[in-house]
Amino acid sequence: MSTTLVWSTIAIYVVIAIVIAYLSRNGRQNSMSGYFLGERKLNGFVSALSYSATTYSAFMLVGLAGLTYNGGVGALGFEIIYFMGVSLVAIFGPRFWLVGKKYGYVTPSEMLGDRYQNKWVAVVAAVASSLFLIPYSAVQLTGIGYLLQGVTNDAIPYTTGVIIATVLALVFSYIAGIRSVAWTDSLQSLIMIITSTIVVILIVNSLGGVSGFFASIEANDPQALAVPGNGFFNFWTFLGLTIPWFFFSISNPQVSQRLFMPASLKSLRHMLLGFLVFGLIYTVVSVVWGFSASILFPGLENADLATPMLLSSDVVPPILGVIVMVGIMAAAISTIDSILLTLSSLFSRDVYRNVKGEANDRKQLMIGKIVIPIIAVLAFLFAQLELDLIAVLSVASSAGLIVVVPAIIGTFFWKRGTAPGVIVSVTISSILVIYIEATGGLLLGLKSGIWGIIVATFLFIVVSITTQPPEQKANEFIDYVKGRMKNKK
Amino acid sequence: MNQTEKFWGLIILIIVILGYVIPYTFLSDVTKWYGSFLIWSILALITIVANYFLTTDWSDEE
Fold it and tell me: Which residue spans traverse the membrane (chain B) (predicted)?
């Protein structure tokens, strides 16, 4: 792919995205809820596209395509189980939204701290999230570095790609907080879904249409259409991979924080349904992409090269290929900038405010803005290390974030849950997940995510039963939600 | 949880379980497009329908 074409397309994308980010600057950005939640006034359309862009990082078109290339149809199942897990938004979404409005929560860990009436709950949840999310953003940066390096045959060095991504994520976060992120996300989502779908149509046509496409797979590698197929997706691996992702929509703070943002429950509904439609198209596109690469370019040493190979092939016109490539880059950036904002809000709201004592809204916002570049630099440094450790931690990130799920469920459905229960379950299970990931990824044959959810649930229940719950708050909180949910019907 | 949530929540739970069980049992030897590929796609569509009904009465009150 021509380097000039790549640079020109990146330049056009940057200009358009910055203009859109700048235009999104209406409303107040001088408060925590203004800057980090868009004043809780995002409409359903923008929310849906932004939620999609935040969730679907470069992982989909590079990672999922690569997984399909390696393991066949099991990759589709893996992503569909995640997709089914987004239904948790239908149960937890309105509850987050209701209490967010009533109590003014800005972050999910702040909600936990208030509900369990203990500031250390907020601190522990925020620290655990940061621990697992910073490496996750670093992996996105790494992905951009390799992608640009790959499609331009090293003309754009790895570090240049990483620097571009870091700077853009910072700029989008800074211009107008979540508003600019949401609007640039929307632009990126629309471009991606249209261009990647066109690419799939072109590729499938080149293979003789839908029937020719499936006939090619059956002739080429029939096992790719079944699980466990070639053994890549044996049942326990499948279970271990899918369990953490099933809970992704409530365990990942950069995603669950979005449940505070829609203007109304109707907007939240549009966000959910819009995301599901978008997500299904995107999933099928990525999987077909991976299958196509396995037919057209069998025997690749690194499956993550499936996407760059397809984009630079004769089947895809160069201009379309480069748009999708920049789209993948934008997808990764949109995931990083959302994480940057969430992490800085977690730090200023949940760690700084709770540890420091007195910190008004303005001061918290200032701290949050100072922290954004620091987190970006940390992610950048992680990405520069290019260590295996990053891969280890990125796998651990989805498994690690699952440990907060029992506490979140307890927030809305179990009055008996206690702060010591949350602190012990989150702390011990986080350490256990890191230990398992650092020592090979399996304990007694099971992946860290399965251990994470089992141990966190067990500890949360046992420690809660043996300690004193915050009865007054639990009753008020849960009864309020119950009352409001009943009135809706 | 209210009745609508319980009903559609249960449907989704069943869909999730089927998403694990069917491909790894009945369809594990089916190396055709109408095997796991089709069943996961259908289950995904049912998930969208279930979410549609689960959220029909979410109001536009701000």
Answer: 7-27, 33-54
Locate the chain B residue with the closest alpha carbon to A262.
B62
Residue by residue, pLDDT tens for chain A (489 residues) are: 788 888 999 999 899 888 888 888 766 667 888 888 888 888 888 888 888 888 877 777 777 888 899 899 999 999 999 999 999 999 999 999 999 999 999 999 999 999 999 999 999 999 998 888 887 888 788 878 878 887 787 888 888 988 998 998 888 888 878 888 888 888 888 888 888 889 899 999 999 999 999 999 999 889 999 989 888 899 998 998 899 889 999 999 989 999 999 999 999 999 999 999 999 998 999 999 899 999 998 888 877 778 888 888 888 898 888 888 888 888 888 888 888 889 999 999 889 888 887 778 888 888 888 989 998 888 888 877 766 555 556 667 888 899 999 999 999 999 999 999 999 999 999 999 989 988 888 889 898 999 999 999 999 999 999 999 999 999 999 999 998 888 764
Q: Does B10 touch chain A (CB under 8 A)?
A: no
The end-to-end CA distance of chain A, in Å, is 56
Q: Are A58 and A282 in contact (CB under 8 A)?
A: no
- Measured in whole angstroms, the distance separating CA A77 from the mean position of its chain's CA atoms is 18
| Nearest CB neighbour to B51, from listed A90, A228, A283 | A90
CATH 1.20.1730.10 is the classification of domain A3-387: yes
Q: Which residue of A has its CA nearest to B62?
A: A264
- When divided into structural domains, chain B yields a total of 1
CB–CB of B40 and A488 under 8 A? no
**Interface ipTM:** 0.96
β-strand pairing of A446-447 with A442-443: antiparallel
**Is B20–A81 a contact, with Cβ atoms under 8 angstroms apart?**
yes
